[in-house]
Amino acid sequence: MRVFVTGASGSIGSVVVPDLIAAGHEVLGLVRSDTAAAVLAAAGGTPLRGDLTDLDGLRAGVAQADGVINLAFSNDWSNLERGIHEEARAVQTLATELVGSGKPFVHAGLTPMVPGHISVEEDPNTTKGPVGGRGRNSDVVLALAAQGVRSSVVRLPRSVHQRGSAYGFCTALIAAAQKTGVSTYVGDGTQRWPAVNRLDVAPLFRIALEGAAPGTVLHAVADEGDTMRSLAEAIGEVLAIPVESAPPERFGLAGRLFALDMPSSSARTRERFGWKPAHPSLLDDLAAGDYPALG
Questions:
Q1: Which of 6, 89, 92, 188 has the highest local Cβ count within 10 Å?
Q2: Mean pLDDT by 10 residues, the chain (295 residues)
Q3: Please, which residues have CB within 8 angstroms of residue 265's CB and are 6 or more apart in sequence?
Q4: What residues have CB less than 8 Å from 132, skipping those under 6 apart?
Q5: Which residues have C-beta within 8 Å of that of residue 210, sequence separation ≥ 6?
Q6: Distance CA 222, CA 127 (A)
Q7: Closest Cα to residue 196, out of 148, 239, 159?
Q8: How many CB atoms within 10 Å of residue 41?
């Protein structure tokens, strides 16, 4: 299958693309720079220069592919609303081109937040709050199942990690600890965050592309929920600094999310698709240290 992948050189795309190629697929990857294009080409993919705001480029990518995996997102917390709007326009553009095609369309969403409950695949997307727009974008993708598209959403936890390179939400905790000399958590620190190793994510996107039924939701969750305090303590241990509580405002807009309890399960995904996370947990990656200089 020839697969059009947006965000092909990003944190998740850079592991999804090699997995697809190793499985015998061809990859047409959307990249924003000459450097990213060179990296993608070296991995065996074909670069297509552009980004989520290049709607003509998105249309061109769909026209050349047998399936689409949408991974691109700005992740700019200083202008989250703009990033969600860009994703919405891109999703709608891709959707319009795919209607009636029968092609697979796999979209990267977010695990939902269900107060007092470990979220599961059957729970609806979170459509309110700071990242509610992303849930609405995922709903657009799932609705394509009734319009001749084999659409699916792989919902990711807020902490997609890999030692030495990526830590998801914990990136902000590490950066603050490096800058201030104190490792902090919000409130009493009992709120739980699900997590998954970046290397375990890649095969799940391929599984969805190859065989998920229209309208399927998959959860890329390895750890159902580590407490924020345990994560801060792991960082504090590595950096040999004190661990303290801090108000949500300390982390800006992200602090509103940091205060929420958001555990999630992937039991149904594992049972249905045989997905088995095998790489180190978030706590293991944090305890191993090797943090990039972020503060």
A1: 6
A2: 96 96 98 95 96 95 98 83 95 98 98 91 94 96 98 96 92 94 96 96 98 98 97 97 94 84 97 97 96 82
A3: 118, 119, 120, 219, 221, 224
A4: 126
A5: 1, 23, 104
A6: 23
A7: 159
A8: 13
Number of CB atoms found within 10 A of residue 189's CB: 20
CA distance readout (Å), 94 to 30, 37, 98, 146, 151:
13, 21, 6, 15, 11
- On whether the CB atoms of residues 215 and 152 are closer than 8 A, the answer is yes
Those residues whose C-beta lies under 8 Å from the C-beta of residue 262, and which sit 6 or more positions away, are: 111, 113, 119, 157, 158, 191, 192, 193, 194, 225
- The string of pLDDT tens digits covering residues 15-60 is 999 999 999 999 999 999 999 999 999 999 999 999 999 999 999 9
Six-digit token string for 82: 């703009």
Instruction: Output DSSP code: residue 22.
Output: H
* Distance, CA of 223 to CA of 121 (rounded, Å): 15
For 159, the token pair is 């902490």
Contact at 8 Å (CB) between 58 and 50?
Answer: yes
